[in-house]
């Protein structure tokens, strides 16, 4: 047993005893409901537990349930696997042509031009490229808090300020407060919709009018990694705004519902000049493998597979909700393949105890509360979670 | 449907999902005291968080490594401490002590929480005294451990519970 954990637990207990903050209406503590700015190497406003990489490297073997990285265990599709096998013999070739084949397919489906699409090996390299491309001395990036930390943490690493705007009492991005937080030094506004780790979605009309106004002043980066899990992705995506010339970058990935997290492919849809700007900072296209490209082409908009994966995700999620309710726990209703719920002990202790029982999940701390984020897995994984959870709930 | 569930989330949050005062105004009863002494953790090296009757939790987290004590008698004893927590409301009721001798025999004691009634405290003193008659230096060796724990807890509260308060920080 690590001593660090023990101390932290003690510490927290002490703090809770001394602080005794009453919760008002929600777990959102009003004292925190104002944007906070953190500079380089400052302590983040909300804090995340171990990252997915750290959890994976420290996981017990064999892991009964891998529920810490928001992957889709029902993928990739059979068509994708078949395409990979068929492509292997020609995988000595650079995938110059197939890149265009995929971006054309996406362009046709989304009703944009091919020149609006920039492919990369996952959306992560593009988040990184945006952080680098928009940086200038004294700049800041505005995000929700908590939200997906990749882009702003990279921007912070190179010297940008990270302006963190607390979520609403419904754990959604607070678009009004985010708009107010923008100043002359803001170079990017990062909108994660649906938001990770809360799995909430903002009102669509509100987001569109937000982007309409804000993108006239500053580039808005909309990360739609989990949009495929929504009932109406086409009615929700902001990609159509690219056609009207908006200064926005919409990021998409095959890592989630398509089940390609290990195959690595994603893209942004934006203005051609923005692509030119981003391409200075990423190898992007040259980092995608032939096999992955062909797999993506074969399974793009494969409704049979996608609907099947969605159905299984919903079944596992509803099982999870029942487990949580039965154990007397609440949760933030989820629009994605992960669920955030408040826990009754220190987050690190909770994830350690779960990992000891072969179940990998992540924790967050915000609003004076510890939270568990659990990805939706196969039913056997959810059952493994349930039996481990019952032991410590 | 979604908003109904959401209301549920907020409602619970309003009640406070975490015990604000870890004693919760609730103290260890005599019945619980007797019961806690029967709670057995199979392997203190592995079992750091164990539930009993889905109502009580023994939580080793927070107590660091096990204590090993070899006194003048040269006999090595192992002492493991666990917080006794009432699951409902996460109320800390006391501390369960496993005292393992050099032959592997285990004695279990339950130190009541501060708010426990005098009768429970009296019973605890009688019980450890009784063990001491059977197991030489039990109370003495236990007092080393509890003294060090008290020292650490006072140090920690003196630091206001803030910052990185490590067990080694004072050494
Ligand atoms: C919101 C969000 N954006 C982007 C990513 C990165 O995905 P990838 O690089 O696999 O496309 C993730 C991964 O978890 C995510 O949650």
Name its key features.
heterodimer, A: 393 residues, alpha/beta, Aspartate Aminotransferase, domain 1, Aspartate Aminotransferase, domain 2, eight-stranded mixed β-sheet, four-stranded antiparallel β-sheet, 15 helices, 14 strands, 40% helix, disordered N terminus, B: 171 residues, alpha+beta, six-stranded antiparallel β-sheet, binds pyridoxal-5'-phosphate
Description:
The complex is a heterodimer of chains A (393) and B (171). Chain A is of the alpha/beta class and 393 residues long. Chain A has two domains: 45-74 and 304-392, Aspartate Aminotransferase, domain 1 (Alpha-Beta Complex), CATH 3.90.1150.10; 79-299, Aspartate Aminotransferase, domain 2 (3-Layer(aba) Sandwich). In chain A, 40% of the residues lie in helices and 16% in strands. Chain A has helices spanning 3-19, 52-57, 78-87, 96-110, 124-134, 150-157, 175-181, 204-214, 233-236, 240-243, 272-279, 290-299, 303-326, 347-356, 379-392; strands at residues 36-38, 47-48, 65-66, 117-120, 140-145, 161-166, 186-192, 219-223, 248-253, 266-269, 338-342, 359-360, 362-366, 369-375. The radius of gyration of chain A is 21 Å and the shape is globular. The two termini of chain A are 20 Å apart. The model of chain A is unreliable at 1-25 and 40-44 (pLDDT under 50). Chain B is an alpha+beta fold. Chain B has one domain. In chain B, 35% of the residues lie in helices and 23% in strands. In chain B, strand 5 (91-100) and strand 6 form a beta hairpin. The N and C termini of chain B lie far apart (56 Å). Mean pLDDT of chain B is 84; it is low at 1-20. The structure holds pyridoxal-5'-phosphate (PLP).
What is the secondary structure topology, with strand pairs?
The complex is a heterodimer of chains A (393) and B (171).
Chain A: H1 3-19, E1 36-38, E2 47-48, H2 52-57, E3 65-66, H3 78-87, H4 96-110, E4 117-120, H5 124-134, E5 140-145, H6 150-157, E6 161-166, H7 175-181, E7 186-192, H8 204-214, E8 219-223, H9 233-236, H10 240-243, E9 248-253, E10 266-269, H11 272-279, H12 290-299, H13 303-326, E11 338-342, H14 347-356, E12 359-360, E13 362-366, E14 369-375, H15 379-392
Parallel strand pairs in A: 3-12, 5-6, 5-7, 7-8, 8-9
Antiparallel strand pairs in A: 1-6, 2-13, 4-10, 9-10, 11-14, 13-14
Chain B: H1 2-15, H2 30-36, E1 49-52, E2 56-59, E3 67-70, E4 76-86, E5 91-100, E6 106-112, H3 118-134, H4 138-158
Antiparallel strand pairs in B: 1-2, 2-4, 3-4, 4-5, 5-6
The complex binds pyridoxal-5'-phosphate.
